[in-house]
Amino acid sequence: MDLSLLLIMLLAFVLLIVLPARQRKKLQERQRALQESLTPGTPVMTTAGLHGTVARLDEGTVDLEVAPGVVVTFARQAVLEVRTPVVTGAADGTPLGRDDATGPTDGGPADRAR
Predict the structure, then answer these.
(1) What's phi and psi for 72, nearest 5 deg?
(2) Which domain holds residue 73?
(3) For 55, which DSSP code?
C-alpha cells in the first residue's frame, strides 16, 4: 500500500512539475530562435497584435514599420511570430480577393447578391 502511494505521488510530481517545465523551456528556445532570426523586411506580429515589417534591429529593440513612413520601437521580446506576406495578384500590388485566391465561390448570400 505504501509503495502505491509513493508511486502516485511521484507520478503527480512528474505531471505537475517536470512536464510543464520542459514545455516552457522548449517555448523559450523557439522564441529565442525566432528573435535571433529577425532581419529587416521580415513581416511580424507583436504580442499586442500589431502587425508590421522589421525596419531596424538594435541590441534589445526592434523598429517596426506599421504603415509607410510610420516606425514604432518595441522590445525584441514583444515579437510573437513571423507572418507570411500577403499574396498579391495584380501588378499594382493589391491583395487577391476571395474569388481570385480561392476560385469559385460557395454560392452563399453574398454571392447571390452580385
Answers:
(1) -120, 150
(2) 2-84
(3) E
> With the C-alpha atoms ordered 70, 75, 79, 84, is the resulting torsion angle positive or negative?
positive
Tens of pLDDT, residue by residue over 36-74, are 889 999 999 999 999 999 999 998 899 999 999 999 999
Residues with Cβ within 8 Å of residue 99, at least 6 apart in sequence: 105
| CATH, residue 45 | 2.30.30
Please tell me whether the overall predicted TM-score, pTM, comes out greater than 0.70 for this model.
Answer: no
Q: What is the DSSP string of 72-114?
A: EEEEGGGEEEEPPPPPB-STT-PBP-HHHHH-S----HHHHT-
Residue 7 lies in a domain: yes
* Domain tally, the chain: 1
Question: How far apart are alpha carbons 72 and 38 in whole angstroms?
Answer: 16
pLDDT at 24: 92
